[in-house]
Each structure stands twice: as structure tokens, then as C-alpha cells.
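Tutorial handout. Part one gives the primary structure; part two gives the three-dimensional structure as C-alpha cells.
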Amino acid sequence: MCLALLVISCGGPVGDNSTHRDTYAQPTILNEAVIMQERNDAPHAMASSSQLYQKGVLVSAKHITDREDDNTFKVFFNGRAYRGTFMKTPPLSDLVLVQIEGLDPATTPEPYTLGPAAQVGDRVFVRGIHPHPPNLQKERTIVPIFSGYYGLKGRKDEFVFDNLPARVVNTNVVVDMGNIKGAERWLEGTQNVYTELRTDDDHLFSFAGLSGGPILNERGQIVGVVATEQPDFRLESPNSPFLKQEFHKINIVPVSELRALLATLPPSR
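Part two.
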């Protein structure tokens, strides 16, 4: 399943659009950001991203950018909303580079660097910022984009920073993108060989919105980018006829594809 998150809305946001500010209250500094497509100044489609290559350059999932013709986005990064512009994408991988406009390098953390290829059994961490329901927001790092920026006071879900421990279970997963409902237009022709991760804990709901989020190894280096999820089903109990859906499996674009993308750019400053 494609992991860019769509927000269904009719007309403008539920709130006073004139109260939009450039800032919102983020409690901690992160290298992760949210890339947002809007409709009528309201949130519409979103994905996670992170700094890579140099300050102000984000890597994310290609399928979020293919939703618009003008290739401009809103980027929420460390308490401020910026304009983001399309920078570069490879022809055959679900990756994109986005440039943040107006970023102050002096107050920006150093970008991530690339690590070695992940191997089966490696401990990794799935990171990103995406909406969580109210019952899964407790004791988490809240990034108040819906309430603090858009003024959507009636919404119960809100963006949360995830840092999910996981293990690499397969480095050669073939995914038929034509069978992923809703992703055919965005991912047609993209590479379909991924690395599969399994999170230690059931995420309890979809990973939607984590597309483009970085996968870090234990040294804090990027070894991949989130692409798709694979929900599991199991019996609620041994004697139950009812199935329970679990969210453990994530497919990622491997670091080799990131390395090939960065090799097409001039040396970072």
C-alpha cells in the first residue's frame, strides 16, 4: 500500500484561514519534515522527509510530488512553514529531492549522511512525522501542524514524530506496483525491488504519511527511505473466527538508490 496520506476535505479548512502563521510550536529540533500538498489552503496529501546531501535539501517519496503539476509544496520543518520546490528525481525509483526556500542554515541541524547497505538482521529505526489518532498520542512528540498551523481545532488526530525500532528481514522483495490500488499513476515505471523491515511492535494503525521518511541504522545514518506497507492479518485468538489487522511490515527504497541519486549532483557544500 502506498503511504502518502490523503486528507479528505470539502472547501477550505475548518478554522479561520486568516490566522495562518509561518510558525507553529514544535517541542524539539528534528532532521525530519512534513511535505504537504494543499487544496484551497487546506491539507490534502502529505509525506515525511528528512535532510540529506546539504542543509535545506530534503529526500522524500516521489509519489507525493506527482500529485501536482507545478511541483511546489509546503514544507513543515522545525516549527516553521516553508515553500518547497522540486529539485530532482530519478526515473526508476520512488525518490525525490526537494529544496526548502528561505531556510536559515545557522539554525538548521546537520543533514543525515548515507550508511552502508542494510543486511538481514540489522537493527534500524523508522523515522517520520505523520498523523496519529488521539489514543496513540500520549507520551509522544506532538508536532501540532493541524491545530497549531491550520487551526483545525475540531480534528482529533495530530502529527506525531515516530522513531520505531525494527529489523531488516529481506533485502530482495519484489512488489508489483500495478497491484497497489491508487498508486499506479504515481509509481508507474518505478523500481519494484525493495528491502523489507518488520517493526518490533504493532503500529496499531496504518503507516500512511510515513512515505519518504528515513530509515536510520544504529549509527544514525540513512540506509533507506519508506515506500510502502504490508498489513498482516491474524486471528484475534486461537478459537476466534475474527481477523485482526496488524501493522509491522514496511518496504523501503534501499540506500543504493539514494547513493545513485546523489551521485548525479555536484559535491555538497
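Part three, for discussion. The domain at 1-269 is CATH 2.40.10.120 (Thrombin, subunit H). Residues 255-262 form the longest helix (8 residues).
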